[in-house]
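Proteins fold reproducibly. Consider a sample protein:
=====
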Amino acid sequence: MRSSVGLKLGSLTLDVPFFQASLSGYSDYAMRTLARRFGCPFTMADMILDKSAANPRVLRKACFRPGADEHPVGAQIIGRTPATIATAARDLVAAGYDVIDLNFACPAPKVLQRGRGGALLNDPDTVIDTLKAVRDAVVCPVLMKLRIGVDHKPQSLDSFWEIVTRSIEHGVDGLVIHGRTVSERYRGKADWGLPAAVKSRFPNATVVGSGDIFDPAATVELMKKTGLDGFIVARGAVGNPWIFRDLRCAWENRPLPAPPDLAEQRLVMLEHFERMLQGHPEKRAVRKFRKFVVGYVCRHPKRKPVQMSLMKAKTRAEVEAAIDTWYTDTHSSTDW
C-alpha cells in the first residue's frame, strides 16, 4: 500500500495523485457526483468565463448544489484581462469554491480568436500578471492549466519556459501541463516529456500531467517514470466513472476489478441521467446526456445499435426505455 498522501495542491491534500479535470460542456454536478462516488477525491467544475462568474445563472449551472457535500470542488476560469479574472476568482471563492484554476490551455478556435486560453501562452506577461492578481484576490490554492506551447516553434518553447519559471517564482500551487501544443488540439499522442522536464528542473514545484489518461495501470506507470506529482483525468472520464475506481486500485497496487456488467452499467447510466434531470429541463437533460452516450456504450457488445437508439431518444421515457432494453443479459452476447 502506498502513502496516504497522494497529491498536495497548496493547502489541499488528496489521498491519491489524480483528480477530474474541468471539461467544457461536461463536468457539471451530475458528472462530478458520479466521479466522487467512484473514488475521485477532487473535481473541477465546468470552465467559467471571467465576465460571467458573478452571474447567478452561471453559478447555478456550474457550481455545486446548495447543501450538497461536494467539497473540495474547483473552479476553472478563462479570460484575458488580469483584473477581470481576479474579480471572478474572488466571486467564485465567495460562492464556495475551494480551488481556482487558471486556463491558459484551451485550444478551441472560438476561445483562441478572442485571445483567451491557449492564445495567452504567447503572452507571458499577461499570464503572470493574471496569476499575481488572482493571488492577491483569494486565499486558496491557485493552479494553472498550460499546454507545452502554442506550437513547436522555438519562440513558443521559450515562452512556455518563461511562464513556468515565473509562475513558480510567484508561488503557483500547481502547474497542470497538457502534453500537446495548442495547434495540435487533441491530435496525435500526448507527450509527457516536457512536463517531466519541468519537474526535473523544478523538483519542489507541483507538476501535474494531462493528456490521454485512459489506461489506469499504464498511467500510474507513466507517472512513476516521469516523476510527476500527479495527473488529471479528462476525456477518459466521459461516460466512464469507473476509471476512478480502477485508478485507485492501480495506485494502491490492488488488482483491478472486473469491468462492470450490463446490469451495473444500466444502473449507473440511469443514475447519471436522473441527476441531469434534477438540474435541467427534460429536453436539455436529454441533449446533454447524449454527450456521454459514446463513452458509456463503448463497453456494450452491440455498441453501434445501442448508440443509435440512445441518440434518437428525445424524451425521458425514450432514454430510459432504450437503456432498459439494451442493458439486460439478453444483450450480453457479442453476436450481432
